[in-house]
Protein backbone atom coordinates (compact mmCIF):
# COMPACT_ATOMS: atom_id res chain seq x y z
CA UNK A 1 0.00 0.00 0.00
CA UNK A 2 2.86 2.35 0.82
CA UNK A 3 4.33 2.06 -2.67
CA UNK A 4 0.94 2.72 -4.23
CA UNK A 5 0.53 5.80 -2.08
CA UNK A 6 3.93 7.07 -3.18
CA UNK A 7 3.01 6.61 -6.85
CA UNK A 8 -0.19 8.58 -6.43
CA UNK A 9 1.52 11.24 -4.28
CA UNK A 10 3.63 12.75 -7.04
CA UNK A 11 2.12 16.15 -6.34
CA UNK A 12 4.27 16.64 -3.29
CA UNK A 13 7.45 16.59 -5.35
CA UNK A 14 6.06 18.02 -8.56
CA UNK A 15 4.00 20.93 -7.29
CA UNK A 16 7.08 23.11 -7.04
CA UNK A 17 8.69 21.94 -10.28
CA UNK A 18 7.58 23.84 -13.35
CA UNK A 19 7.33 21.66 -16.45
CA UNK A 20 6.25 24.71 -18.38
CA UNK A 21 5.60 28.29 -17.40
CA UNK A 22 2.05 29.44 -16.90
CA UNK A 23 1.45 32.35 -19.23
CA UNK A 24 -1.12 34.83 -17.95
CA UNK A 25 -2.51 36.93 -20.75
CA UNK A 26 -4.69 39.99 -20.21
CA UNK A 27 -8.02 40.31 -21.99
CA UNK A 28 -6.66 43.01 -24.29
CA UNK A 29 -3.41 41.23 -25.17
CA UNK A 30 -2.39 40.86 -28.79
CA UNK A 31 -4.35 38.06 -30.42
CA UNK A 32 -2.97 35.37 -32.71
CA UNK A 33 -3.84 35.33 -36.39
CA UNK A 34 -7.30 33.84 -36.90
CA UNK A 35 -8.74 35.01 -33.59
CA UNK A 36 -12.10 36.77 -33.67
CA UNK A 37 -14.12 38.34 -30.85
CA UNK A 38 -17.57 39.95 -30.89
CA UNK A 39 -18.07 40.85 -27.21
CA UNK A 40 -21.51 42.32 -27.81
CA UNK A 41 -23.05 38.89 -28.53
CA UNK A 42 -25.45 38.04 -25.71
CA UNK A 43 -23.81 36.48 -22.66
CA UNK A 44 -25.80 35.54 -19.55
CA UNK A 45 -23.51 35.08 -16.55
CA UNK A 46 -26.55 34.41 -14.33
CA UNK A 47 -28.02 31.64 -16.48
CA UNK A 48 -29.08 29.24 -13.71
CA UNK A 49 -30.33 26.51 -16.05
CA UNK A 50 -27.03 25.96 -17.80
CA UNK A 51 -24.52 26.88 -15.08
CA UNK A 52 -23.76 23.93 -12.81
CA UNK A 53 -24.51 24.14 -9.10
CA UNK A 54 -23.11 21.96 -6.36
CA UNK A 55 -24.94 18.62 -6.32
CA UNK A 56 -27.16 17.68 -3.43
CA UNK A 57 -25.69 14.75 -1.54
CA UNK A 58 -26.81 13.06 1.63
CA UNK A 59 -24.64 11.28 4.15
CA UNK A 60 -24.54 7.59 3.23
CA UNK A 61 -26.87 5.42 5.29
CA UNK A 62 -25.83 1.79 5.46
CA UNK A 63 -23.81 1.31 2.29
CA UNK A 64 -21.16 4.05 1.72
CA UNK A 65 -22.27 4.51 -1.91
CA UNK A 66 -25.87 5.33 -1.00
CA UNK A 67 -25.35 9.09 -1.10
CA UNK A 68 -27.84 10.01 -3.83
CA UNK A 69 -25.13 11.18 -6.23
CA UNK A 70 -25.14 10.44 -9.97
CA UNK A 71 -22.86 11.27 -12.90
CA UNK A 72 -25.25 9.83 -15.49
CA UNK A 73 -23.78 10.98 -18.82
CA UNK A 74 -20.61 12.11 -20.57
CA UNK A 75 -19.87 15.64 -19.35
CA UNK A 76 -21.83 15.16 -16.09
CA UNK A 77 -24.94 17.17 -16.96
CA UNK A 78 -27.16 17.47 -20.03
CA UNK A 79 -25.35 20.67 -21.04
CA UNK A 80 -22.06 18.64 -21.11
CA UNK A 81 -20.24 21.23 -18.98
CA UNK A 82 -17.74 18.72 -17.48
CA UNK A 83 -17.78 20.75 -14.26
CA UNK A 84 -18.60 19.40 -10.78
CA UNK A 85 -18.77 22.26 -8.25
CA UNK A 86 -17.56 21.24 -4.79
CA UNK A 87 -17.16 23.08 -1.48
CA UNK A 88 -14.15 20.91 -0.68
CA UNK A 89 -11.92 20.22 -3.68
CA UNK A 90 -9.96 16.95 -3.98
CA UNK A 91 -6.30 17.24 -3.05
CA UNK A 92 -3.29 14.96 -3.37
CA UNK A 93 -1.72 12.81 -2.14
CA UNK A 94 -4.31 10.46 -3.66
CA UNK A 95 -4.67 7.02 -2.14
CA UNK A 96 -5.53 4.09 -4.41
CA UNK A 97 -8.67 2.51 -2.98
CA UNK A 98 -8.98 -0.07 -5.76
CA UNK A 99 -7.90 -0.86 -9.30
CA UNK A 100 -9.79 -2.61 -12.08
CA UNK A 101 -7.00 -3.53 -14.47
CA UNK A 102 -7.37 -4.42 -18.13
CA UNK A 103 -5.64 -4.36 -21.50
CA UNK A 104 -8.23 -2.57 -23.66
CA UNK A 105 -7.97 1.18 -24.29
CA UNK A 106 -10.26 3.40 -22.20
CA UNK A 107 -11.02 6.41 -24.37
CA UNK A 108 -14.04 7.62 -22.41
CA UNK A 109 -14.83 7.78 -18.71
CA UNK A 110 -17.52 5.69 -17.03
CA UNK A 111 -20.84 7.02 -15.82
CA UNK A 112 -22.13 6.61 -12.28
CA UNK A 113 -25.59 5.68 -11.03
CA UNK A 114 -26.31 4.65 -7.45
CA UNK A 115 -23.76 2.06 -6.28
CA UNK A 116 -22.19 1.35 -9.66
CA UNK A 117 -19.97 2.70 -12.39
CA UNK A 118 -20.73 1.67 -15.97
CA UNK A 119 -17.70 1.57 -18.24
CA UNK A 120 -17.82 1.03 -22.03
CA UNK A 121 -14.42 -0.12 -23.29
CA UNK A 122 -13.16 0.41 -26.83
CA UNK A 123 -13.72 -3.26 -27.67
CA UNK A 124 -17.48 -2.83 -27.20
CA UNK A 125 -17.68 -4.49 -23.77
CA UNK A 126 -19.82 -2.84 -21.09
CA UNK A 127 -18.84 -3.36 -17.42
CA UNK A 128 -20.66 -2.79 -14.16
CA UNK A 129 -18.07 -1.84 -11.51
CA UNK A 130 -18.75 -1.30 -7.81
CA UNK A 131 -18.02 2.26 -6.66
CA UNK A 132 -16.96 0.97 -3.27
CA UNK A 133 -14.77 -2.06 -4.11
CA UNK A 134 -13.97 -1.81 -7.83
CA UNK A 135 -15.23 -5.35 -8.36
CA UNK A 136 -16.95 -6.21 -11.63
CA UNK A 137 -20.58 -7.20 -11.10
CA UNK A 138 -21.21 -8.14 -14.72
CA UNK A 139 -19.89 -7.52 -18.22
CA UNK A 140 -21.59 -7.77 -21.60
CA UNK A 141 -20.00 -7.78 -25.05
CA UNK A 142 -22.37 -5.49 -26.94
CA UNK A 143 -20.33 -4.99 -30.11
CA UNK A 144 -16.85 -5.02 -31.61
CA UNK A 145 -15.86 -1.34 -31.36
CA UNK A 146 -16.93 1.63 -29.24
CA UNK A 147 -15.70 5.17 -28.52
CA UNK A 148 -18.20 6.80 -26.19
CA UNK A 149 -19.49 6.91 -22.65
CA UNK A 150 -22.79 5.18 -21.89
CA UNK A 151 -25.71 6.85 -20.12
CA UNK A 152 -27.53 5.50 -17.06
CA UNK A 153 -30.83 6.29 -15.38
CA UNK A 154 -33.70 4.56 -13.57
CA UNK A 155 -32.16 1.10 -13.65
CA UNK A 156 -31.16 1.11 -17.33
CA UNK A 157 -27.81 1.67 -19.09
CA UNK A 158 -27.71 2.85 -22.71
CA UNK A 159 -24.70 2.32 -24.99
CA UNK A 160 -23.91 3.51 -28.53
CA UNK A 161 -21.39 1.48 -30.56
CA UNK A 162 -19.31 2.13 -33.66
CA UNK A 163 -19.67 -1.46 -34.79
CA UNK A 164 -22.05 -4.20 -33.71
CA UNK A 165 -21.16 -7.84 -33.24
CA UNK A 166 -21.68 -8.68 -36.89
CA UNK A 167 -19.62 -5.76 -38.25
CA UNK A 168 -20.93 -3.15 -40.65
CA UNK A 169 -22.91 -0.36 -39.06
CA UNK A 170 -23.31 0.73 -35.48
CA UNK A 171 -25.64 -0.36 -32.74
CA UNK A 172 -27.52 1.13 -29.80
CA UNK A 173 -28.36 -1.08 -26.83
CA UNK A 174 -30.30 -0.75 -23.57
CA UNK A 175 -29.42 -3.14 -20.74
CA UNK A 176 -30.56 -3.71 -17.18
CA UNK A 177 -28.28 -1.81 -14.80
CA UNK A 178 -28.62 -4.59 -12.23
CA UNK A 179 -28.00 -7.67 -14.40
CA UNK A 180 -26.69 -6.51 -17.78
CA UNK A 181 -29.58 -8.28 -19.51
CA UNK A 182 -30.35 -6.70 -22.90
CA UNK A 183 -33.73 -4.97 -22.84
CA UNK A 184 -33.64 -3.88 -26.46
CA UNK A 185 -31.13 -3.29 -29.25
CA UNK A 186 -31.28 -1.50 -32.58
CA UNK A 187 -28.90 -1.91 -35.51
CA UNK A 188 -27.82 1.35 -37.17
CA UNK A 189 -27.00 1.78 -40.87
CA UNK A 190 -23.85 3.75 -40.02
CA UNK A 191 -21.23 3.70 -37.29
CA UNK A 192 -21.92 5.77 -34.18
CA UNK A 193 -19.63 7.15 -31.46
CA UNK A 194 -21.86 9.87 -30.06
CA UNK A 195 -22.26 9.47 -26.29
CA UNK A 196 -26.04 9.18 -25.74
CA UNK A 197 -28.17 11.71 -23.91
CA UNK A 198 -31.28 10.65 -22.00
CA UNK A 199 -34.06 13.16 -21.34
CA UNK A 200 -37.78 12.78 -20.61
CA UNK A 201 -37.96 9.20 -21.83
CA UNK A 202 -36.01 9.74 -25.03
CA UNK A 203 -32.47 8.88 -26.08
CA UNK A 204 -30.55 11.27 -28.38
CA UNK A 205 -27.31 10.66 -30.32
CA UNK A 206 -25.73 11.13 -33.76
CA UNK A 207 -24.10 8.84 -36.33
CA UNK A 208 -21.48 8.93 -39.08
CA UNK A 209 -24.00 9.21 -41.93
CA UNK A 210 -25.13 12.53 -40.44
CA UNK A 211 -28.32 11.22 -38.86
CA UNK A 212 -29.35 12.45 -35.42
CA UNK A 213 -31.73 10.06 -33.66
CA UNK A 214 -34.43 10.50 -31.04
CA UNK A 215 -35.44 7.05 -29.78
CA UNK A 216 -38.06 6.08 -27.24
CA UNK A 217 -35.99 4.94 -24.29
CA UNK A 218 -38.40 2.20 -23.26
CA UNK A 219 -38.14 0.16 -26.48
CA UNK A 220 -35.81 1.93 -28.97
CA UNK A 221 -38.61 3.02 -31.33
CA UNK A 222 -37.63 5.96 -33.57
CA UNK A 223 -39.52 9.12 -32.66
CA UNK A 224 -37.76 11.41 -35.17
CA UNK A 225 -34.52 11.83 -37.11
CA UNK A 226 -32.61 14.85 -38.40
CA UNK A 227 -30.06 14.80 -41.24
CA UNK A 228 -26.96 17.00 -40.85
CA UNK A 229 -24.50 18.07 -43.57
CA UNK A 230 -21.76 15.74 -42.31
CA UNK A 231 -20.97 12.95 -39.86
CA UNK A 232 -22.12 13.63 -36.29
CA UNK A 233 -19.39 12.08 -34.15
CA UNK A 234 -19.64 14.13 -30.97
CA UNK A 235 -22.35 13.99 -28.34
CA UNK A 236 -25.38 16.27 -28.32
CA UNK A 237 -25.87 18.85 -25.55
CA UNK A 238 -29.28 19.99 -24.32
CA UNK A 239 -30.48 23.32 -22.94
CA UNK A 240 -33.77 25.24 -23.07
CA UNK A 241 -35.50 22.53 -25.09
CA UNK A 242 -32.88 22.55 -27.85
CA UNK A 243 -30.18 20.05 -28.84
CA UNK A 244 -26.80 21.43 -29.94
CA UNK A 245 -24.05 19.67 -31.93
CA UNK A 246 -21.40 20.05 -34.63
CA UNK A 247 -20.66 17.86 -37.64
CA UNK A 248 -17.82 16.88 -39.98
CA UNK A 249 -19.15 19.29 -42.58
CA UNK A 250 -18.07 22.23 -40.43
CA UNK A 251 -21.61 23.14 -39.36
CA UNK A 252 -23.03 23.77 -35.90
CA UNK A 253 -26.74 23.22 -35.19
CA UNK A 254 -29.58 23.85 -32.79
CA UNK A 255 -32.65 21.63 -33.27
CA UNK A 256 -35.82 21.28 -31.23
CA UNK A 257 -35.82 18.44 -28.74
CA UNK A 258 -39.54 17.80 -29.24
CA UNK A 259 -39.57 17.06 -32.98
CA UNK A 260 -36.07 17.59 -34.42
CA UNK A 261 -37.07 20.74 -36.28
CA UNK A 262 -34.13 23.02 -37.15
CA UNK A 263 -33.80 26.20 -35.07
CA UNK A 264 -30.54 27.31 -36.71
CA UNK A 265 -27.64 25.89 -38.71
CA UNK A 266 -24.42 27.86 -39.23
CA UNK A 267 -21.29 27.06 -41.21
CA UNK A 268 -18.47 27.84 -38.80
CA UNK A 269 -16.05 30.42 -40.26
CA UNK A 270 -12.55 28.99 -40.67
CA UNK A 271 -9.46 30.35 -39.02
CA UNK A 272 -7.46 30.01 -42.24
CA UNK A 273 -4.29 28.97 -40.44
CA UNK A 274 -3.96 25.19 -40.68
CA UNK A 275 -5.50 23.94 -43.88
CA UNK A 276 -6.96 20.99 -41.96
CA UNK A 277 -10.39 21.24 -43.49
CA UNK A 278 -12.53 23.76 -45.29
CA UNK A 279 -14.14 26.58 -43.38
CA UNK A 280 -14.76 25.55 -39.77
CA UNK A 281 -12.97 22.22 -40.20
CA UNK A 282 -14.52 19.14 -38.64
CA UNK A 283 -16.27 19.03 -35.28
CA UNK A 284 -15.37 15.92 -33.30
CA UNK A 285 -15.63 17.87 -30.06
CA UNK A 286 -18.91 17.58 -28.16
CA UNK A 287 -20.37 21.00 -27.33
CA UNK A 288 -20.76 22.47 -23.87
CA UNK A 289 -23.65 24.87 -23.31
CA UNK A 290 -23.55 27.61 -20.68
CA UNK A 291 -24.14 31.37 -20.30
CA UNK A 292 -26.38 31.45 -23.37
CA UNK A 293 -23.48 30.16 -25.52
CA UNK A 294 -22.39 26.97 -27.29
CA UNK A 295 -18.67 26.10 -26.99
CA UNK A 296 -16.79 23.50 -29.04
CA UNK A 297 -13.44 22.81 -30.70
CA UNK A 298 -12.57 22.03 -34.32
CA UNK A 299 -9.92 20.18 -36.31
CA UNK A 300 -8.94 23.51 -37.88
CA UNK A 301 -7.34 24.33 -34.53
CA UNK A 302 -9.96 26.76 -33.29
CA UNK A 303 -12.24 26.87 -30.27
CA UNK A 304 -15.62 28.50 -31.01
CA UNK A 305 -18.38 30.21 -29.06
CA UNK A 306 -21.82 30.74 -30.62
CA UNK A 307 -25.03 32.32 -29.33
CA UNK A 308 -27.60 29.68 -28.36
CA UNK A 309 -30.34 31.99 -29.63
CA UNK A 310 -29.41 32.28 -33.29
CA UNK A 311 -25.94 30.78 -33.84
CA UNK A 312 -24.17 34.14 -34.11
CA UNK A 313 -20.40 33.78 -33.74
CA UNK A 314 -19.28 35.32 -30.43
CA UNK A 315 -15.58 34.42 -30.67
CA UNK A 316 -13.02 32.09 -32.19
CA UNK A 317 -9.66 31.30 -30.60
CA UNK A 318 -6.92 29.65 -32.69
CA UNK A 319 -4.70 27.10 -30.85
CA UNK A 320 -2.46 26.08 -33.77
CA UNK A 321 -3.44 22.39 -33.89
CA UNK A 322 -6.41 20.03 -33.79
CA UNK A 323 -8.93 20.53 -31.01
CA UNK A 324 -10.59 17.14 -30.67
CA UNK A 325 -11.30 17.64 -26.99
CA UNK A 326 -14.65 18.73 -25.63
CA UNK A 327 -14.36 21.87 -23.50
CA UNK A 328 -15.25 22.18 -19.84
CA UNK A 329 -17.19 25.37 -19.11
CA UNK A 330 -18.12 27.01 -15.83
CA UNK A 331 -16.85 29.05 -12.90
CA UNK A 332 -15.06 27.77 -9.83
CA UNK A 333 -15.45 29.50 -6.47
CA UNK A 334 -13.86 32.93 -6.65
CA UNK A 335 -13.28 32.68 -10.40
CA UNK A 336 -14.91 34.10 -13.56
CA UNK A 337 -16.78 32.16 -16.29
CA UNK A 338 -14.10 30.10 -18.06
CA UNK A 339 -13.61 27.58 -20.87
CA UNK A 340 -10.96 24.90 -20.22
CA UNK A 341 -9.74 22.97 -23.28
CA UNK A 342 -6.63 21.23 -24.61
CA UNK A 343 -5.10 21.21 -28.10
CA UNK A 344 -2.91 18.88 -30.15
CA UNK A 345 -0.38 21.70 -29.90
CA UNK A 346 0.31 20.37 -26.40
CA UNK A 347 -1.04 23.53 -24.78
CA UNK A 348 -3.89 23.58 -22.32
CA UNK A 349 -5.99 26.76 -22.19
CA UNK A 350 -8.25 28.59 -19.80
CA UNK A 351 -10.25 31.07 -21.91
CA UNK A 352 -12.57 33.88 -20.94
CA UNK A 353 -16.03 32.40 -21.62
CA UNK A 354 -17.38 35.77 -22.77
CA UNK A 355 -14.57 37.03 -25.04
CA UNK A 356 -12.26 34.06 -25.77
CA UNK A 357 -9.24 35.90 -24.34
CA UNK A 358 -6.60 33.67 -22.77
CA UNK A 359 -6.75 33.76 -18.97
CA UNK A 360 -3.78 31.39 -18.68
CA UNK A 361 -2.16 28.63 -20.71
CA UNK A 362 0.25 25.82 -19.92
CA UNK A 363 2.36 23.82 -22.34
CA UNK A 364 2.22 20.15 -21.28
CA UNK A 365 4.48 18.73 -23.97
CA UNK A 366 2.32 16.56 -26.24
CA UNK A 367 -1.06 16.09 -27.90
CA UNK A 368 -4.07 16.71 -25.64
CA UNK A 369 -6.91 14.84 -27.26
CA UNK A 370 -9.15 14.06 -24.29
CA UNK A 371 -11.70 16.29 -22.62
CA UNK A 372 -10.96 18.22 -19.46
CA UNK A 373 -12.90 17.68 -16.23
CA UNK A 374 -13.22 20.25 -13.45
CA UNK A 375 -13.71 18.87 -9.92
CA UNK A 376 -13.98 21.69 -7.42
CA UNK A 377 -11.09 24.06 -8.18
CA UNK A 378 -8.94 21.52 -10.04
CA UNK A 379 -9.02 20.80 -13.77
CA UNK A 380 -7.81 17.37 -14.91
CA UNK A 381 -6.41 16.62 -18.38
CA UNK A 382 -4.56 13.67 -19.96
CA UNK A 383 -2.14 13.07 -22.84
CA UNK A 384 -2.22 9.85 -24.86
CA UNK A 385 1.26 10.49 -26.29
CA UNK A 386 2.83 10.87 -22.84
CA UNK A 387 0.41 8.53 -21.04
CA UNK A 388 0.22 11.15 -18.33
CA UNK A 389 -2.43 13.10 -16.44
CA UNK A 390 -2.24 16.48 -14.71
CA UNK A 391 -4.37 18.32 -12.19
CA UNK A 392 -3.99 22.08 -12.59
CA UNK A 393 -5.41 24.91 -10.54
CA UNK A 394 -8.53 25.89 -12.47
CA UNK A 395 -8.06 29.59 -11.66
CA UNK A 396 -4.28 29.80 -12.00
CA UNK A 397 -3.00 26.91 -14.13
CA UNK A 398 -0.55 25.99 -11.36
CA UNK A 399 0.58 22.36 -11.40
CA UNK A 400 -0.96 20.52 -8.46
CA UNK A 401 -0.44 16.88 -9.42
CA UNK A 402 0.92 14.68 -12.17
CA UNK A 403 0.91 10.92 -12.69
CA UNK A 404 2.45 8.75 -15.41
CA UNK A 405 -0.90 7.19 -16.14
CA UNK A 406 -3.71 8.28 -18.43
CA UNK A 407 -4.62 8.63 -22.08
CA UNK A 408 -7.82 10.47 -23.03
CA UNK A 409 -10.55 11.83 -20.74
CA UNK A 410 -9.14 11.43 -17.24
CA UNK A 411 -11.70 11.47 -14.45
CA UNK A 412 -15.16 11.76 -13.03
CA UNK A 413 -15.89 12.25 -9.34
CA UNK A 414 -18.62 11.98 -6.73
CA UNK A 415 -17.44 14.66 -4.29
CA UNK A 416 -15.48 12.20 -2.17
CA UNK A 417 -13.73 9.84 -4.55
CA UNK A 418 -12.14 10.29 -7.99
CA UNK A 419 -12.64 7.60 -10.65
CA UNK A 420 -9.59 7.74 -12.85
CA UNK A 421 -8.97 6.32 -16.35
CA UNK A 422 -5.49 5.03 -16.97
CA UNK A 423 -4.63 3.81 -20.46
CA UNK A 424 -6.53 0.56 -19.94
CA UNK A 425 -7.30 0.37 -16.20
CA UNK A 426 -9.83 2.12 -14.00
CA UNK A 427 -8.83 3.31 -10.51
CA UNK A 428 -10.74 4.51 -7.48
CA UNK A 429 -8.71 7.26 -5.78
CA UNK A 430 -9.39 8.77 -2.38
CA UNK A 431 -8.11 12.35 -1.94
CA UNK A 432 -6.08 13.40 1.09
CA UNK A 433 -8.17 13.34 4.24
CA UNK A 434 -10.92 11.22 2.71
CA UNK A 435 -11.24 7.63 3.85
CA UNK A 436 -14.23 6.56 1.84
CA UNK A 437 -13.01 2.97 1.45
CA UNK A 438 -12.50 2.50 5.19
CA UNK A 439 -16.23 2.25 5.86
CA UNK A 440 -17.60 -1.27 5.98
CA UNK A 441 -20.99 -1.52 4.27
CA UNK A 442 -23.87 -3.36 5.85
CA UNK A 443 -24.88 -6.50 4.03
CA UNK A 444 -27.33 -5.52 1.32
CA UNK A 445 -28.05 -6.63 -2.24
CA UNK A 446 -26.30 -4.65 -4.97
CA UNK A 447 -28.52 -2.17 -6.79
Would you mind describing this structure in some detail?
The protein is built from two helices and 36 strands. A hairpin with a 2-residue loop joins strand 14 and strand 15 (202-206). The strands form eight sheets. Strands 1-29-28-27-26 form a five-stranded antiparallel beta sheet, with no helix packed on it. It has a five-stranded antiparallel beta sheet with strand order 2-25-24-23-22, with no helix packed on it. By secondary structure, it is an all-beta fold.
Could you tell me the number of beta strands?
A: 36
Radius of gyration: 20 Å
Profile the largest sheet.
Answer: 5 strands, antiparallel
Low-pLDDT stretches are: 10-32, 271-278, 437-447
* Structural class determined from secondary elements: mainly beta
